Amino acid sequence: MQTILFHSTIFGPIHSRRLGTSLGVNLSPADGKVCSFDCLYCEAGFNAQGPGKAGLPPRGEVARLLEEKLASMKAAGENLDVITFSGNGEPTMHPDFEGIIDDTIALRDKYFPEVKISVLSNSTRLDREDVVRALRKVDNNILKLDSALEESVRLIDRPVSPDFTAEKAISGIARFPGQAIVQTMILRGEENGKQIGNDTPRHIDALLEACRRIKPRSVMLYSIDRPTPCRTLHKVEREELERIADRFREEGIEVQVN
């Protein structure tokens, strides 16, 4: 079974196909996975691998490690485009998420004031006011919406909480009009004999209607680029992604295809 990607709290810089030269911040354990989704396509593997033994990194340690890395990069004259919260799970599950964002903004301003701060979130914690406040402070508030149809959310994203729904995700993202960047993984395939895909006209129509409600700053459409824990998923090629993107562009919605 595919396992966690990152074995440290601060990782990289790496080249992100969507964000540029990115220094990563992993708020999940360095030896396990903690996430409110269990996506079929997650590059960090399934949640069944467990949370490990290290625990979540404390706020003070995150700030210390981040400052050490930023200071060394500054001294070496290295380039940096973005500090990105991602890692081995959902960053907004950290109990000190808002404080960590505040620390990161202060450190960014001290060492690389031109650098953007991005958060990749699965939109499951948008009912928490501290999370909403934190996400309103960052430059790139990237929120997942793989499908606006409930059955596909259950099949593809597999939320841990039975109370989470596509409607809750849409309503939560709509709290950030003009700021949210909606990120959608487009794929097809099958799992346990069930056909899986969110590339059909029905899915795209529903996603477009959701974006009319959300009024996002932009939409990111992408597909599988690396091995996935579910081996029967298939990449949707760029040409098809561009055709889907044109539907959104016709509505005046900015779209980035990767």
What does this structure look like?
There is one protein chain. With 258 residues, the protein is of the alpha/beta class. Helix content is 33%, strand content 22%. The chain contains seven helices and eleven strands. The protein has helices at 59-76, 97-111, 129-137, 150-157, 166-173, 201-214, 238-249, and strands spanning 10-16, 20-26, 82-86, 116-121, 140-144, 180-185, 187-191, 194-197, 218-222, 233-235, 255-257. Strands 1-2-3-4-5-6-9-11 form an eight-stranded mixed beta sheet. A three-stranded antiparallel beta sheet has the order 8-7-10, with helices on one face. Helix 1 packs parallel to helix 2. The longest helix has 18 residues, at 59-76. The two termini are 26 Å apart. The mean pLDDT is 94.
Keywords:
11 strands; three-stranded antiparallel β-sheet; alpha/beta; eight-stranded mixed β-sheet; about 260 residues
Offer a quick outline of the entry.
The chain has 7 helices and 11 strands.
H and E order: EEHEHEHEHHEEEHEEHE
Beta strands, count: 11
Name the poorly predicted regions: none
Helix proportion: 25-40%
Query: How many helices does DSSP assign?
Result: 7
The biggest beta sheet, please? 8 strands, mixed
Rg, nearest Å: 18 Å
Globally, the shape reads: globular
Alpha-beta content class: alpha/beta
Strand percentage lies at: 15-25%
**What is the residue-averaged pLDDT?**
94
Whole-Å distance between the termini? 26 Å
The strand order across the widest sheet is 1-2-3-4-5-6-9-11
What is the multimeric organization of the chains shown?
A: single chain
